[in-house]
Amino acid sequence: MQNLLKILQRYSNFLVFIALEVAAFLLISLNSAYPRSSILSTANNAIAWQYEQISNISGYFGLRHQNELLAKENAALRNQISSMQLSPHTDTIRYESAKVVQMTTNRLHNYLTINRGSKDGLQKGQGVRNEEGVVGIVRTVGRNYSVVMPIINTQTNLSCRFTKNDYIGTLQWDGKDNRFAQLADVTTHMVVNPGDTIVTSGLSPVFPEGIPVGIVESSTLKEGESYHSIRVRLHTNFKRLKYVEVVQNANQQEQEELTDGLD
Amino acid sequence: MDWTKQIGRYVVVMLLQVLLFDQLQLLGICHPYIYILCLLMMPITLPHSVDMIIGAVAGLIMDIFCNSLGIHMASCILIMFIRPYLIGSIVNDKDRLNEQISLHAIGLEALLKYVIILVLLHHLTLFSLAAWSWHHIGFVLLETIVSSAITIAVIIGYNILRYK
Predict the structure, then answer these.
(1) Partner-chain contact A147 B24, CB within 8 Å
(2) Do A61 and A113 fall into the same domain?
(3) N or C: more exposed end of chain B, with fewer CB within 10 A?
(4) For chain A, give me the number of helices (H) and strands (E)?
(5) Is residue A218 located within the same domain as residue A120?
(6) Measured between beta carbons, which residues in chain A are less than 8 angstroms from residue B78?
(7) Is the pLDDT of residue A75 over 70?
């Protein structure tokens, strides 16, 4: 017994080291599981608030660009009203506008923090877009702030389709350039040309159908492979992202429960 | 240097980290984590286990800022574990160890060895954990070398400015 205590005492530092590392790895594994704590992320009130103060100051530097985007969007909306080309989903979907208070674009796992939370009706899994196109999916919801996983995160998958023939593919990101993403799962019997337009498929309740995603930049076909490697130029300019809209689909929960029941 | 000064330095370094060094854009391979300056420059006067707990807390705080729960924590605990053994093997003059680690106390050669080894170890662990697959190994190594070079330059520069 005394020997055991001596050994424990002798290796106590090593045991503390092991215990702390185990705790760290537990946190890492928690992090990859889907629902995670809003306190231990930038959805944390105190941390998001600091980032918001910083973005309030830096926000003045992009006003001209934001004005141009808003003017363009106004024009597009007027056109839509005049031709009354509203999508069939319109009555169940509303948009909640939000400001980006923090964002990274230079890592493998990028995230952005927005100043809307559960008090504004946000829930995890809701889609996020801006006036240019798709941005990402809400991942962690705090009371006043939320963390969004953008399409420029190597963990994101987004179902998309070609406007020209309705073929479906999955949008992924390789972690390299925040202006380009890759479209997977497009079989070789389809002809892909640079300039083809990609939009959201509407197959999942996260995004309604037809939100702009990007344009095919290049497409290569490797010998012996059954899928195209397609490089997509994204419409959304992540480095200048300031304001976004959260897609709140009233039927999302029902739709997800139905598909979950199938597994 | 007393502990209020240590904490003051930590706050300033964290502000620089979040406002300046986290915003660097260089092909997505340049992510220097200069906040470990505070861990590396802490005097070795506390018990080893307390040192590691301080490392864990500093790592966890950085993780919260990065939305990357656990990876900074794991890397910081590792360097705080290795630190006293490393300094013991680099610095022969044992009675200087109760002082803090600085250019003045241990000399340029030992300081360079100490900083380079620990920064490389920290950044390599961190980026490997972040990528979490062998698929990105080339990218991780490149990221480690580029980012470590900047972190090392900042830490050595800080020491030279301070003890000139």
Answers:
(1) no
(2) yes
(3) C
(4) 5, 12
(5) no
(6) 21
(7) no
Cα separation, A242 vs A236, whole angstroms: 11
Q: CA-CA distance, A134 to A124, in Å (whole number)?
A: 16
- The C-alpha of A91 sits at a distance from chain B's nearest C-alpha, in angstroms, of 35
With CB atoms and an 8 Å threshold, state whether A30 touches B19: no
Residue ranges of the domains in chain B? 3-162
Confidence of residue A85 (pLDDT cuts 50, 70, 90): low
Cβ contact A87:A210 at 8 Å: yes
CATH of the domain at A53: 2.40.10.340
In contact, A136 and A153? CB cutoff 8 Å: yes
CATH 3.40.50 is held by the domain B3-162: no
Beta-bridge partner residues of A212: A199
**Cβ pair B71:A104 closer than 8 A:** no
Residues A68, A89, single domain; the answer is yes
Start-to-end CA span in chain A (Å): 54
Q: Angle between the B48-66 and B71-90 helix axes, to the nearest 10 degrees? A: 140
What distance separates the 2 farthest-apart alpha carbons in chain A? 88
Least confident range from A90-104, A220-234, B45-59, B69-83: namely A90-104
ipTM (interface predicted TM): 0.85
Using the predicted structure, report yes or no on whether residue B97 has a pLDDT greater than 60. no
Whether residue B56 contacts residue A24, with contact meaning beta carbons closer than 8 Å, is answered with yes
CA dist B69 → A84, A237, B60, B66, B118 (Å): 47, 27, 7, 8, 21
Contact A147 B67 (CB under 8 A): yes
Overall domain count for chain A: 2
Domain that holds residue A63: 45-153+238-250
pLDDT tens by residue, B5-52? 889 999 999 999 988 888 776 767 888 999 999 999 988 888 899 999
Q: What is the pTM of this model?
A: 0.76
Contact state of A13 with B25 under an 8 Å Cβ cutoff: no
A55 belongs to a structural domain: yes
CA pair distance A233, A212, nearest whole angstrom: 11
Residue in the structure block whose two tokens are 């959304």? A236
Q: Cβ contacts (< 8 Å) between B129 and chain A: which residues?
A: 28
